[in-house]
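We modelled the chain as a single entity of 229 amino acids. Its sequence is:
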Amino acid sequence: MLAAMMVATITASAQFEPGTISIQPKVGGVISKVSNMPKVNFDFSDLGGYNYDIDKSFYGGALIGAEFEYQITNQFSAAAGLNYSMQGCQWEDFELRNGSNSSKVKDLQIELGYLNLPVVANFYLFKGFAIKTGVQFGFLLSAKCKATNELKLDGVNSTRDYSVDIKDNYNKLDISIPIGASYQVPTVPIYIDARYNLGLTKLQKELSAGEEANKNQVFQLTVGYKFAL
């Protein structure tokens, strides 16, 4: 165990020496939403005077991937990675009623699966702590609209799950600007990375008259094990 700790400490220190190439497998969580996504509005005045304004909320997903880093100087490095990220947006649950009948819509969301290629420059303010920015290219693998509908009709309850493939409506390439910071634990090569990815490209292939472009807004927090090659 003592030998393993010594090797880990040496590896962690050596990563920041100029000329070092390292790899960092990572996993983490994603909190995302889509800009300019319309609210879901309902006005059923003839069914009891209900007026709903269902706003959108954040979507929680996961990320898994790896990143290669080349240490150019003690203060500067370049990195490129590849990861799979679950992104999207969702709306608040809502219920429509008409007397004893009701329809409750739950988990209305758009799920987007991306294969992302981030390329970033790391600026080390001090050993182990870096701020970073660059560009990320995302390739859309899947896009679905999902919801669960709980119905109560004439005293009979039923539940239906909906899933619609909407990939054909979205652009395959998504470009964003990652901005973030990372920190390596001093004694072991464990790496904590936080980034905000600001989407630049529109998601939809076509826009209706007066419709604003939707863009990804993603915050990710990952933990990785970094070691020199």
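As a brief sanity check on the tokenised model: DSSP finds one helix and 14 strands in the chain. The radius of gyration is 23 Å.
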